[in-house]
Every structure is written in structure tokens, then in C-alpha cells.
Design a protein that fits this description.
single chain; alpha+beta; Herpes Virus-1; 2 domains; two-stranded antiparallel ribbon; 9 strands; rod-shaped
Length: 164
């Protein structure tokens, strides 16, 4: 999401016409533009860079044959999980170095430590016969515990054989 918006920012600074990059090519190039309007949202990305996000706009043009053309658009935004930004936000991921957001439907917390998790950081596993979501740290701890149980279980079985 940041990449296209930064490119869009450069285009706006060069041409001073944000609608040009969004709507040109939709109709034939023979149209004379009568009016172009765009509403944009200025905000900062997680790294503090300025981002210009088009929200909606309209273009009215006149073709060389006298046809009046009207084009309206409404830009849709998406959460990093892929769901529309019109879905309510569930929260920001708490895994170190991530910080992505997810919609309320996709957002989950680690079953063990309750750290908030985006879709990419959710580690799905089975604990006590139930499917569950863990963070990377808790999953590593669980794998270590399982390995320790297997190793100690092996020693217990060897001890039982020696006593028999």
C-alpha cells in the first residue's frame, strides 16, 4: 500500500493534477476535459512518510463528437489481511517488527500470552486436540516442551524395560 501511494505522491507533485493518473485512459484520448475533481486523504505511514490516498473523485469530459462523459470513482482501501478497509479494524499486531493491522474478523490474539496478531504472524497449531493460534514465541516454547516430553518419555520407557 505504501509503494503505490508514494508513486502517486510523486505524480501529484510533478503534475499538480491527481485525477490525471487515476482516470486517463478510461475513455478515448479524444475527449476534452471540462472538469476534474478529486478528494484525497493526507496521512502518514508507519515510518512517518507522507502518503496521499485518493478517496473519490469525478471527471466530466466532452468527446470530439460532442458526447458528454461523466466518470465517478470511489477508491477502495484494504487492510493488510486483504479485507476491505470498510471492515472495522481489529487492532495492530504485537509481534516484534511487524505492526500491521487486520480487520476485526481476521485479527486474533495468542492463546497463551494474549499478544495481538495479524494474519501473517498467526501460528496455527493443535493443543490438547483443539486448533489454536499462538505467537511465534509461544509456538517455539510449545515445540520445546513437546520435544522434552518425547525425550523424557523415551528415557521412562527405557527404564521400564530395564526393570522388567
Amino acid at each position: 500500500m505504501v509503494g503505490p501511494n508514494l508513486v502517486f505522491l510523486k505524480v501529484v507533485n510533478k503534475t499538480q493534477n491527481p485525477m490525471k493518473t487515476l482516470l486517463d485512459g478510461f475513455f478515448d484520448d479524444d475527449a476534452e476535459k471540462l472538469r476534474q475533481e478529486a478528494e484525497v486523504k493526507l496521512k502518514a505511514d508507519p515510518h512517518g512518510n507522507l502518503v496521499i490516498e485518493p478517496t473519490h473523485g469525478e471527471e466530466v469530459s466532452l468527446s470530439d463528437k460532442g458526447t458528454i462523459r461523466r466518470l465517478k470513482y470511489k477508491a477502495d482501501r484494504y487492510h493488510p489481511c486483504g479485507c476491505s478497509a470498510e471492515e472495522p479494524s481489529g487492532g495492530r499486531c504485537g509481534e516484534e517488527g511487524c505492526g500491521q493491522t487486520a480487520c476485526a474478523r481476521c485479527f486474533q490474539r495468542c492463546r497463551s500470552c494474549l499478544v495481538p496478531l495479524c494474519v501473517e504472524c498467526q501460528q496455527h497449531t493443535t493443543v490438547d486436540g483443539q486448533s489454536t493460534v499462538l505467537c511465534m514465541t509461544c509456538l517455539a516454547k510449545l515445540k520445546g516442551q513437546r520435544l522434552l516430553r518425547r525425550i523424557t518419555g523415551l528415557f521412562v520407557k527405557l527404564e521400564d524395560r530395564k526393570e522388567s
